[in-house]
Amino acid sequence: MHHYTGLKSVFILFHVFSIFCVITSYGFEVPAGERPENFFSDLKKSLQNIEGNSSVIRAKDYELSEAKANQLIAESEKGLRIGINVYGQSIHEDRPNEGFYHRYRALNQVYLRKPVFHWGALQAREEIGKLNKKLAQESLDRRIRSLRGELRAVFLELVVLNYRIQLATEQVKLARQNVSSVGEKVKVGLSTPLSLEEAKAEQLSREISLSAINIKLQRKTTQFVTLSGYTVPLNLDIPEAFWDFCLQHQPSANFPVLVSSINSEEIEQLNIQVSIEEQKAIISDAELKPKINLNGAYFQDQVDTLEAGQNLDRNNFIVGLEANWAIWDSHKSKAQKRAAMARKAKFQHLIETKTRELRESINSMIKELESLQARIALAQRLISVAQNRFEKSSLELSLNRISPLEHFSSVVGLDMAKISNLETVCKYMVLLDQYEQAVGSE
Fold first, then answer.
1. Under a CB-based contact definition with an 8 Å cutoff, are residues 238 and 163 in contact?
2. Are 393 and 442 in contact (CB under 8 A)?
3. Staple 67 to which of 133, 171, 200, 251, CB 3.0 to 4.6 Å?
4. How many other β-carbons are positioned within 10 Å of the β-carbon of residue 81?
């Protein structure tokens, strides 16, 4: 029975491992041709120079430099320490049955010390230094990656806002023309004062909307400059290639959910924290154990000779082992180990929680991406319908079959269809970038 249970456990472990190996061979990466920087040169330049320009990244660089220095400090604890002492003395002696005696002397000393056996504590400190350096490096890499995603999102928002301003400016211009046209018709009795007031209200509404969009654009521009450090004026005009992309591109329908990708950068950092706490527990265990060190020294001293008033300089060489043993620390080391184990358990719990949250987040992103794919297709169809409506409305207006205000409605409808398509594509690109961050590239 026990033999059967053991074989069953081995089979289950092998099966899980096989699945893991198959799944880890896959990944997800946004095609280069579908990234926003492929269409906007200023975004591409800002992303290329992000590590040198962004103050956010420089702060992380300082943390990495500090971690590297701390690693060297930990490594030096295992190394050899050499010191030199030089003494210069003026001696005044009042010897019995002799006259007052005065002389000068200079002595020197060279000593060395090297830890030999500290019950793994020194190795643990060195390992903590390496882990903290790895933690700082991964934190830097993660911040660079997330900042790239933030910049893409903010830049695409700027593109949408800039296009909104272009449309709003054109709408204000048309609204003013409409007010003028209706006013002329009122004068000759072809329109009513009510129609004129409606046209004026529409004009004011468009002007207020334009002012609000301009303010949002200024705020987002400031945010982009702060994050990127890119101070060159941005070109936010939409190139023809991006319009073609928005109107014709058919996004991929496949979004793999990867078990291996659940091991995200954030979770990897928590795993490093677990390892650090394990090393701290080793250090705590070693606190009340004897530490063995190798000591050596060369020093000079002087001794009296048989002849009165004479001294002999001696050169001494010493090599030996030293044992330091702290016997009692009022439970300090025990409490330190207990605290390390508690922190380790906390980080392990966070890993489980984050893994679950990340899996749910990925599933949610996939559903939203699929929804955006459907909305992109609908938005592309809406533009086609709105374009046909605008063309027919223009014809009707030229034949005086509809009012300018009715035609203006078709203009706004076409503009809103273009904005809807642009916003949906931009949201899709931003979310796809976030999905890549969560899942991990190949």
1. yes
2. no
3. 133
4. 12
Is there a contact between 128 and 78 (Cβ–Cβ < 8 Å)? no
Pairing of strands 81-94, 100-117: antiparallel
Chain segment 316-345, per-residue pLDDT in tens: 898 999 999 999 999 999 999 999 999 999
Under CATH, which architecture does the 24-439 domain have?
A: Up-down Bundle (1.20)
Give 191's pLDDT tier (boundaries 50, 70, 90). confident
Which run of H or of E encompasses 265?
Answer: helix 265-286
Q: Which residues contact 278 (CB under 8 A, 6 or more apart)?
A: 340, 344
The pair of three-digit structure tokens given for residue 155, joined into one six-digit string? 């830049």
Per-residue HEC secondary structure of 120-135 comes to: CHHHHHHHHHHHHHHH
Please, is 34 exposed, middle or buried when counting C-beta atoms within 10 Å of its C-beta (0-12, 13-18, 19+)?
A: middle
- Over residues 250-301, the pLDDT tens digits come to 876 566 655 444 557 788 899 999 999 999 999 999 999 999 999 999 888 7
Helices (H) and strands (E) in the chain, counts: 10, 4
Strand order in the sheet with 291-304: 81-94, 100-117, 291-304, 311-324
The closest alpha carbon to 203, from 170, 161, 166, belongs to 170
**Alpha-carbon gap, residue 378 to 243, rounded angstroms:** 16
pTM: 0.78
| Residue 7 scores a pLDDT above 50 | no
Which structure tokens are listed for 174?
A: 């048309």
